[in-house]
Amino acid sequence: MESPVVVEVAINGGTFPDRNPNVPLTPEHIQSDVFGLLDAGASMIHTHTYDINLQGQAAADAYLEAWRPILEERPDTVWYPTLSVDQSVGAKGESVEGRFAHYPIIAAEVPMPIGIVDPGSVNLGYPDEDGLPTGFSYVNTFDDIKYAFNLCDEHRFGPSLAIYEPTFLQTVLTYHRAGRLPQGSMVKFYFGDEWGMFAKGSGVSFGLPPNASSLEAYLDMLDGVDLPWSVSVWGGDLLKWPVARMALERGGHLHIGIEDHFDPERTPTNLELFEETKALCDEVGRPIATGDQTRKILDLPGT
């Protein structure tokens, strides 16, 4: 129970000021938020730019504008950007190469220890005027997934493995059995609360609900596989659900932040969410991991 817990903060994502006015989108606001979180003890930061449609050099420039000053002062920060998505041609984007084109550019300029692999496909949506599901299919083919894993291997990124639903984990386990998971892999269980991924209305979500039996199902699948794992709740508040404490008690880690969080009655800052999470970690008796401890827990390349 005394083992350090990695607390990852997803600071912005697809959240905009109409959903939470505290979301950091400008470089200056991102820098202020990140420095505050690092000073408070956050273990890892996940970030988007103001425009997820940017690809290649344009996306890299947007990330570097925000992150170069942070990494000049805190070069050991454990952080990673998201993938590019050209929404004009659908959620899959123009090509898997285009979605990742900014990664090598950023990594050539500043330290970047983590990459993303979304190992599956899922319908993501919100209720239409009749209360029925609408939205889009987030598609990652097996070839796309192989490309992402190979990119992480080539550039020595520790893969952040987002598990939207159980089939995603099945794919991860297949790579694990084949000995093909890159060093630094971390499994992240995404649970869907009532407001779903986009918080445009309640009642349309994805994946498994954030309850104890759902986490038990994932841990049963992961039995005998020594990979670090975390829990998050999308379209809700992680700390209101038993999976948060249960994860801490079972040796897991926590993924929080304005990207995931939604509560129609409050709009907290990332720092407020972190401090609330820290209080739970203190209550359970697990200290929050430092940056160096996080690198060792994840076994990131170069650690």
From TrEMBL:
InterPro entries: Aldolase_TIM (IPR013785), BKACE (IPR008567). This is 3-keto-5-aminohexanoate cleavage protein. Keywords: Metal-binding, Transferase, Zinc. It comes from the Bacteria. Its cofactor is Zn(2+). It holds the Pfam family BKACE.
